[in-house]
Amino acid sequence: MTDVSPDPEAARWNYHPGGVVQLNPLFSRPLDLRAVWRWYQGAWFQVTALTVPLVLAIVVWWAFLPALETMQAFQVGWMVQVWLANLLPQILVAGGLHWWLYSRKGQGKRKKFDARDLAFSNGTFTFRSQLWDNVWWTLGSAITVATVYQWGLFWMMANGYVPVISFTENPVWSVLWLFLIPAWSSFHYYWVHRLEHHPRLYARVHAVHHRNVNIGPWTGISNHWFENALYFSTYWIHLIVPSHPLHLMFHAMFQQISPVMSHSGFEKVIVGDAEAAKSGDFFHQLHHRYFECNYGTSELPFDRWFGTFHDGSFAATQRTRAHKKQMYSR
């Protein structure tokens, strides 16, 4: 164990961050503006699951995405470009993280939450391999569903069926909407995720994702196609909220890339002795181990408000297990 703590919960992990999981201080009272600044500074001014998707979105929109006017009719050319704009960043980030953390083992098990390696020769997974199961459901299911949704939205934008804005004419709202998209995503994700934990949907749909108790980069959006249909329905906010194609591209990269990082299994990516990026999310790692907790994200404290928050402590584990036992005894 690489972290020493008197809390028995720490003994269950190869790496335990220490202390309790912190939620967005914007919703704490009394309001501590310095804490709020530190939270958002850490999220937006470092290499994180917010900034990596933003940079990718800008690059893809500027260098790769076809002009909106060309999307007025469904044609193979631009539709393939949109598919590749989703596919290639996913392979680059998920494949790159997997190579560094799991194939090359570039940082060993430093900052790795769960000591175990990914599963091989395990009949629970498609192809008996956790890696290839996750790759299959990510590229075959998630990227396909996400791309189909984007085809429809870009086509509607191009034909004036939804409100489209420009950064030059609406600079304040355009920038503000970029910062609000992750908050909307967090709101949407909590309620969709709670729905997926309904016993009928869990057994038939969400269990595909929860095969992964010990998670890796390719686990992020390794979901049943029906779950992906729900998960990526977050894009439909652009039907009513005035947006630029870059907003949709950032939304796409955020939905697809941030789970890669939050499911990496490592709190930080370390190169040499330097912490190069924030990656894994202990908040969500707890959900994969204990299931009936931390349905949302640390951005919006729905789990605290609805009594399903696991803060990483032994006491929280006891509460979660008691809650789960009560749920399944009904």
**Which spans of ≥5 residues are poorly predicted at pLDDT below 50?**
1-5
Gross morphology: globular
Give the mean pLDDT.
Answer: 95
Describe the largest sheet.
2 strands, antiparallel
Strand order of the largest sheet: 1-2
Structural class category: mainly alpha
Which value, in Å, is the CA radius of gyration?
20 Å
Order of helices and strands: HHHHHHHHEEHHH
Instruction: Please provide the count of β strands.
Output: 2
Strand content: under 5%
Euclidean distance between termini CA atoms:
38 Å
How many distinct helices? 11
Number of domains: 1
Indicate the percent of residues in helices.
40-55%
Quick structural summary:
With 330 residues, the protein is mainly α. The chain is built from eleven helices and two strands; from the N terminus they run ααααααααββααα.
Overview of the structural elements:
The protein is built from eleven helices and two strands, in the order ααααααααββααα. Helices cover 52% and strands 3% of the residues. It has a two-stranded antiparallel sheet. The radius of gyration is 20 Å and the shape is globular. The chain is mainly α and 330 residues long. The chain has helices at residues 33-44, 51-63, 76-103, 130-158, 171-196, 199-210, 225-231, 245-262, 282-290, 302-305, 314-328; strands spanning 268-271, 274-278. The protein has one domain (25-291).
